[in-house]
Amino acid sequence: MKFLTLFKRTVGIIVLMMVAVLFAGCSSGKAASKKVVHISYWHVNAQTQGGASVDALVKKFNKTHKYIKVTAKYNPNMYQGLMQNLQSAQASGKVPDVVQVGWAYMNYFADNFKYLTPTDAQSKFDGSKTFISKNFTTRTLSFAKDSKGKLVGLPYSLSTPVLYYNKTMLDKYGIKASSLSTWEGVSAAAKKIKEASGNYGLYIQEPADTWAQQALQLSNGAKVKKNGKAAFASAAGVKAYQFYQDMVIKDKTALHTPWAQGVDDFVNGKVAIAYTTVAQASHIKQSANFDVEAITSPHFKGHKATVPVGGSMLAITAQSTEKQKAAWTFEKYLYKNSSLVTWSKGTGYLPPTQSALSSQTFKNYLSKNPMLKPAASQIKTAVAWTSFAKNGLQAEQTMIDARDKILSGSNVQATLKNAQEKINEQQK
Amino acid sequence: MNKFRESGWHFLLIVICLTLLLPVLFMISNSFKTLQDSYHSMLQLIPTHPTFSNYLTLDKQINLFRIVWNTFFMATIVTLGKIITGLLAAYAFKYFSFKGKKFFYFAFISTIFVPFTVVMIPNFLVISKLNLLNTALGVALPQLCDATGIMLFLKAMDKIPNSLIESVRIDDIPSYKILKDIVVPILRPNIISIGAIFFINSWNEYVWPTLILKDKNSFTLPLALQNYISSEGGTNFPLAMALSTIMIIVPLLIYLIFQRYILNSISSSGLK
Amino acid sequence: MNNRNKKNKTLTIAYLFPTALILLVFIIAPIIYTFYLSFFNWNLIAPTKDFVGLENYFSIFTDPVNRKILLNTVFYILLLLFLNFLVPYFISIIVKFFISKMQTAYKIIFFIPSLFSLVVGAMLFSWIMNPVSGPVAFFMRGLGLTLPNWTNSGAMAVVVICLITNWKVFGYNFVLLLTGLGSVPQNIIDATKMDSIPKWRMIWDIVLPLNKSIAFYVLILTIVQGLQYVFTPISVITQGGPYYGSSNALYHTYLNAFVLYKTGNASALAIVTFVIFLVLLYLEIKFVEGRTNRYE
Questions:
Q1: For B50-63, what is each residue's pLDDT tens digit?
Q2: Which of C26, C101, C200, C274 is most worth mutating to test chain B (most B CB atoms within 10 A of its CB)?
Q3: Residue C62 gets which letter from DSSP?
Q4: By residue range, what is the domain housing residue C219?
Q5: Total number of domains constituting chain C
Q6: ipTM for the complex?
Q7: 3 state DSSP class of C126
Q8: Does C237 touch chain A if contact means CB atoms closer than 8 Å?
Q9: What is the pLDDT confidence band of residue B30, given thresholds at 50, 70 and 90?
Q10: Which residues of C touch A393 (CB under 8 A)?
Q11: Does A2 score more than 70 pLDDT?
Q12: What is the model's pLDDT at position A246?
């Protein structure tokens, strides 16, 4: 009998739902309350990477701003995941108001989504119109400019790759950290370690982008892009990749494996040196049971170390003036020194503004976390992450493909040249 | 000689059991390890410094109760939906005669063979147009019926003697009464076992919910797990394992309670 | 009588309506839409779609990456058949005919991994099987062996990924097949015992043919479900790498659709996958459903 009632009820519910499907087709959006403006903020910060800081910042903002209510939404799978969600949101007509956009997606974002540039926001809502110029250096702003030179968003999180090393292991084999300032030195150290212990000497991160590999090429005087065209197959570019391939294939002193495994292997003491983002610093520090330190990116002999900047910018995707204004107010709150330092501590990223970088609280934080220091010093010379104007995501995929091919033994020159031609073909 | 050979087989089977169970033990053991120990004393199944702190951290960082409830709620809707639509459709195929029966049956069954990649994009658009993003119903709606269910129920109905149904039909008893008073009681073990499988699958579902559920308050357990697998910030393995351990409790309980039904009637009457 | 027929008609419609509606809205219509999209170049949000005719289909068979993907898909199918079908089948025969004790215990234990989410399985195995510093590598080093660096080789990565799904579905398929074997009439088995026919002969000549339809069902299930199951470990562990070596048709569709936003290519590949599945379906109908011929 009980089952019967349950059955009847559920049938009722199902029928109701069917009706709902038929008739709810075009329900209108919620009527916005006149007083409080609700905006949503999309971020990529998992609990292991600053999710709690985002929540704390938003909570504080909502407390201090009576008429704006921000809801933070976490998007799994980093900037790629966020971009997918944004794509779907756009297709369904319900876009968020403030989003984090990874550098590699900047041109794609600018071409395909409606957004309010920070410059416009400033002139629309601010009296003084100096917020941007007062807080950001020209170099930092250049990271967030699209191929036409337009400022798309404001730089929010910055990161650079640094060289982590297992000090305990290097000490054991008498290798000095100062010898790791050049890639040649790194290679020699790796060889020594391989011979003495059988462990790998080096791991360079291999995520679904070629950020670290671009740093390698840039630090040999090569360019990734020249006059809007791919140019990484130059002699200097080939040489850098050849060097990397030799370490992986010929000498077997460098490890070739996906990112998560590579970092795990470093933490487990099976790889002596890891070249990866500064955002990994707190994870590495917490997990390693040996002395670990970090230094700035190495360069090839006779060249300067140059790294592309990683991280993201904040862009305003709100459509109504009311929401745009709220979004801009929220952004300005996020760029306060105190907010930025909270954010940096949670995420391991570096703050984007000069005043936050030089604030006392951030300096105190740096001295407690020395592994972040090299990353901070590199910001001053970092360059924008290469982003191609057309088919940028496919261009990045082409570079990833080239990296994977080279690391499994393909001819470096030919592979890079093919990849370069393929990308330039798509730029037309 | 036979005894000897039989113990050889037992040895093989026990090795298989151990291989299958070792990852489970590994998961539980790591959920009680510190981050350092998870890396540096990998081979110890019993943690050197056992700690409960991973569970406490989880409780602090995410709203566990809410997440478990969301998962439970969603899985329940999906399971009930699949059972009810499945029973109704199977009954129609079994006891009604109508034009195009073969075509409909073929059409229904062929939906099992539709890879999810084919329907993912359009379905997302429909759910968001219906304003159902971030709701359990949004996840559940496209899954309220399942051709596998129809097939399994249909085959289970074979065990009901045709004469029984025919005799009551002649008495002009309405078919919904036949369904609830005769068919459902007879199929009870099948309904329980098929329902249990549906429930467990839905509990673990991952790809589709990631598209629909964005709000932390609507997360299910597999989505919450994402929080601890971050490529940039590093994966916190012990925390992820603690959450995985929490995640397995409900399916395991269901399995232990209905084990006999699940193992005996997944197919015994269902798939011959 | 006429009245009853009419009533039956309405009832039929009422009973089939919920299922039909959901399948129509969430499966049939989307397939048609995807089919439509496969003739265009589109990035999912741009206001215009470029009509390109059959170009997306041509590229599936001419582009070397796509060809590699299709080949991988075949490799996945073969491996899944071996691991998730033949092995459980073999073991279920052992449990049914070659041992006399503990059958239920094995059944209960084998089924446990199928309660787990594949995300958990993928995380666990990528940790356990880490070729440089994982427990298995460590253990093997103790025996003087080295675990090959499977993350660098497409073929080996495919094997590991299949092993992960094998961990999950082994028990489930085992139970299905075992129950199928249980339906072989006992008197036939007893009869062969009396005639002292060797066990393997008896199984080969009598049991396997009798169990053909359920075996075929599991076989199809292994392919169709297996190819979708491997999706999660691929996305958690290798993202299809190294150089598409561990990707398959489904993962590549996802990559095209949601990473590169080449909706047209993705749709075409999805349709091709669907057609392959339909062929399998046809075989299923022919071998399993057709046998009983129940809906004439």
A1: 999 999 999 988 89
A2: C26
A3: H
A4: 65-292
A5: 1
A6: 0.89
A7: helix
A8: yes
A9: very high
A10: 259-261
A11: no
A12: 97
